[in-house]
Amino acid sequence: MTQFAANAALLIIDMQAGINHPRLGPRNNPEAELRMGELLAAWRLSSRPVVHVRHISRDPSSVFWPGQAGCEFQPTFTPLGSEAVFEKHVPDAFCQSGLERWLHVRGIGELVIVGVITNNSVESTARSAGNLGFDTVVVADACYTFDLQDRQGRMWPAETVHSLSLSNLAMDYARILHSNEVLASTHQTQL
């Protein structure tokens, strides 16, 4: 069984109001927010560090364009005063955000990543985390994505896109676990 350090950080990526915009299309993992909420509650209960990442887009057509409601955190994922918040302008949460330094200063070597979009910000952040030497876990049922049209015009279902993204990460960058496995290890550590 996986054991997490007392200072393993939960990294919640882009759980902002805009991600629920209908124009993003069909998605997978309809219970992902419930799984994220369970993990957030467990992290808070165990006093482990929680890091919220918010995307601030440079594209005026984005659901995360500054100054609109889409940029705000969803109520369930509103950071507490004691929790860190990092803003990013590209998919990778480590890129010019100060996140890496913040983690190193606190001696945090383990990251548990949840959020959206699996094949975009989650994958990009997990790849960097793995490359930077962090022990990285991506929680498969606490992430989701949307149907994706490829460059040849073929539409790929969200579940296929999600699965392929997680398979990419499992090769070299992160361990892929389910929320029940992560929750069992956090409860085990508390005993």
From TrEMBL:
Residues 8-153 form the Isochorismatase-like domain. It comes from Pseudomonas fakonensis. It holds the Pfam family Isochorismatase. Keywords: Hydrolase. This is Cysteine hydrolase. GO terms for molecular function: hydrolase activity. It comes from the Bacteria. InterPro entries: Isochorismatase-like_dom (IPR000868), Isochorismatase-like_hydrls (IPR050272). PANTHER family: ISOCHORISMATASE HYDROLASE, PEROXYUREIDOACRYLATE/UREIDOACRYLATE AMIDOHYDROLASE-RELATED.
